[in-house]
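Take a look at the protein record below and flag anything odd:
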Amino acid sequence: MTLPINKKITGTILVIHPKFIGDAVNNTTAISLLRELYPNNKIIVLVNPLLAPIFKRDDRFNLTVMIDERHDKKQKKSIFYQAKKIKEHNVQLAIIMKSAFSDALLCTLANIKYKIGYKKNGRSWLLSHKYKINNNHHYINRYCRLVNEPHNQPFTTSPSTYVFSKRSKLIKADRNKPTIAVYYGGLVKKYRHYPSSQAFQSLALINQTLPSHFVLVGDNQEITDNAKISTDLIENSIDFQDLTGKTTLTELVDIIASVDLLITIDSGAMHIAAATKTAFVAVVGLGTSPWSIVEPKCENKISLVANGSSLNDAEIIKEISPEKIVEAAFSLLKNKITFL
């Protein structure tokens, strides 16, 4: 049995953030608990270069952001280099949210006394506080547990996710129309991708009843997929912007925070919407994790989860009809649009 941390931590605390956007957003719940336990300690978050901008403008948790240069594609550094940088900050406690052996080794090389993490990938002997992961736990529960259990469980509930956002200047919308951000993913998302033809149908049906301004978002890998939707929108004279591949991560956060609704697949964009309190429709096919452990814990959403009879993984998400998406969208928009 792992003994709780009884001594007061007076030094710096290090949190090794998860790799992906959605996971990093979910981990803000654990950061919130940690800051409540240690209101005056310096908390460093070690993040991948991609995620650094959203945490550098944090206004709630008073964090120090350190870029994990082991994952810098332009100038990758060694684990010894990164350990040396961490060692300079007198880190006394590390909470390792990732499961890689190398992250536990990093903290050991940095001479950190208390190292908290899950028993994964043969790294238990490197950890001072090690826990068996419950694969049925929601990811938020997993992250919060690594703060709560080592401190003798002072918390009984998890807080909401949070990321800082501000009004986007990129949206060029008619104020008399609702603004709807759209992220159906590209083929790169594999079985989570919602087909372009059905995606367009859903937007056209919404526009028939409620003329709207649509904002297509995505990264560089999804430009071709969204171009197909754009072509159909142009041919049908539907008001839209295609910002695919044209935004930074912080600009994407601000866009999602500024719209009336997001229509999205299971994605980082979905978790950003939850963290910025933007209403969203989640179109869920076969994900990389079971839906029950990744579904955002918020109320202003409708989750459309494919549960049909198809034995073809690629066909599963197609069972969610455009009409179902429209119904869900109007259900969420009716709280904002009086004539629906």
